[in-house]
């Protein structure tokens, strides 16, 4: 059986994706006539005409459309192989983690704890916007993305959302000088509160809850970053709406106290992965680790649930 010339296949794929012989020639820095010779050789090898000229434009034949699909899979697999093997070190495993900027650092540390300090593991952690992290995951530059919402469906990229934790949300503050019970939601009409930024799923649910009660809260600050929200809760002396894991150390030490638990509001923590031919074994090890179970036991959350979906580029 004759071997396929992948050099010729790459030229064909670029012409097809560019939609023009001249644009492909500019991209490859070769002459159009040289490209024509390469494509002719590929057609002879495959025994099929790949392009037909319609006026001044090139159009794919039926065989050409089939070849484009196969070529895309070939080059995607090659890219995945390069990205997967480029991170390997002799005797060591590399895990590339993306963490949404809005995600609790306490959650990240608790989830990654089984791998932290292991001599055979190198952790690479990137923090960024959820959309950008999914782009990197799709390009095989990340192995897993941690976020407080799942990837939403689209036909272009296949992802799997695993629910790691789901817990009620609390309103916390410093311990009041006189023990008083917070009246919810009526007291929020007079007591300033620090909230997650608008656009956050938790904030949207909170606004809807107060809207149904006819209460307009006094907002002291709106903070997108959970690490900053934690610091603001520590320093302000006022009320703050947070998932308990964000301020777990402060609650344990007594620096902050839980004024009320809002179990009708849920903060969720997801691990987003991609279906791959060569999955990183550390991902499955983390998701099924006792550490992940301990995170869930902090608030009596439900078992892990995996939801397969496809995802495009836009953030929910």
UniProtKB/TrEMBL annotation:
Domain of life: Bacteria
Classification via Pfam families: HTH_1, LysR_substrate
Keywords: DNA-binding, Transcription, Transcription regulation
Annotated ranges, domain HTH lysR-type: 4-61
Family to which this protein belongs: Belongs to the LysR transcriptional regulatory family.
Function: NodD regulates the expression of the nodABCFE genes which encode other nodulation proteins. NodD is also a negative regulator of its own expression. Binds flavonoids as inducers.
Name of the featured protein: LysR family transcriptional regulator
Organism from which the protein derives: Bradyrhizobium guangdongense
Species lineage: Bacteria, Pseudomonadati, Pseudomonadota, Alphaproteobacteria, Hyphomicrobiales
């Amino acid at each position: 059986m004759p071997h396929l010339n992948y050099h010729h296949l790459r030229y064909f794929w670029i012409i097809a994706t560019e939609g023009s012989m001249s644009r492909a020639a500019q991209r490859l820095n070769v002459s159009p006539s040289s490209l024509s010779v390469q494509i002719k050789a590929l057609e002879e090898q495959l025994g099929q005409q790949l392009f037909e000229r319609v006026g001044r434009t090139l159009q794919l034949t039926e065989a050409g459309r089939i070849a484009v699909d196969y070529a895309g899979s070939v080059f995607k697999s090659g890219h995945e192989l390069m990205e997967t093997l480029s991170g390997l070190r002799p005797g060591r495993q590399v895990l590339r983690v993306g963490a949404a900027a809005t995600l609790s650092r306490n959650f990240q540390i608790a989830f990654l704890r089984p791998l932290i300090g292991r001599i055979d593991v190198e952790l690479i952690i990137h923090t960024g916007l959820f959309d950008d992290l999914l782009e990197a995951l799709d390009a095989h530059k990340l192995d897993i993305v941690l976020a407080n919402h799942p990837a939403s469906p689209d036909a272009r990229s296949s992802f799997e959302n695993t629910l790691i934790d789901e817990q009620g949300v609390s309103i916390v503050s410093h311990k009041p000088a006189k023990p008083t019970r917070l009246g919810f939601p009526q007291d929020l009409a007079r007591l300033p509160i620090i909230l997650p930024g608008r656009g956050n799923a938790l904030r949207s649910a909170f606004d809807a809850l107060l809207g149904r009660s006819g209460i307009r809260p006094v907002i002291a600050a709106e903070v997108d970053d959970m690490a900053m929200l934690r610091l603001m809760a520590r320093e302000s002396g006022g009320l703050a709406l947070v998932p308990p894991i964000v301020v777990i150390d402060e609650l344990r030490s007594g620096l902050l106290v839980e004024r009320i638990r809002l179990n009708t509001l849920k903060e969720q923590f997801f691990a987003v992965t991609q279906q791959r031919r060569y999955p990183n074994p550390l991902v499955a090890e983390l998701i099924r680790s006792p550490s992940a179970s301990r995170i869930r036991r902090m608030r009596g959350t439900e078992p892990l649930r995996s939801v397969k979906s496809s995802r495009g580029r836009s953030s929910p």
